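As a warm-up, study this chain.
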Amino acid sequence: LDSVIWSSFGTSGQRCTAASRLIVHRSIHDDFVHRLSQRVAKLVLGDGLDELTDIGPVINESAVERIAAYAAIGRNEADLVIGGEPARDGKLGEGSFFQPTIFTEVKPDARIAQEEIFGPVTSVIPVTGWDETVRIVNSVKYGLSTSLFTRDVNLAFRSIRDFDSGLGYVNHGTIGAEAHLPFGGTKATGN
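Now compare it with the structure written out below.
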């Protein structure tokens, strides 16, 4: 769960390898969403230089407006679990902050699952099997980074073959390993 939270909301979701889609098997979906939302509710927004802060600001107010527009789209396409609004309470109102946001019951072709939001927003997409997972993973126009959490080494190797992305992680989040080396993706990815 820590890797998912860091991948989705670390650097305020403004990282090209951020986990904006979480494709989760239906058998664990409800428990996963419950545990994830409980943890996300405890994240602290604030000054990125403060050690007690979990999520800092987004780059500027234009980014807040863009993320808010996608959150509005998401409310029409899926179920909002938590967040979905600019954070304006207290000192947060002096900066460009957006609440960490989780949508669930997201359809693979929804805009919030297909377009790059570049903010602290993630979409949980339920699946029932491997073929559906592969189809959804590969259904976007981007292909920079994927991650698979599994206990099945065969699925780990299949993900290397089946997922169309430049970076592939197994049992690790989608961020953290790329900063010190050149890296790139597939399809319309900009790197």
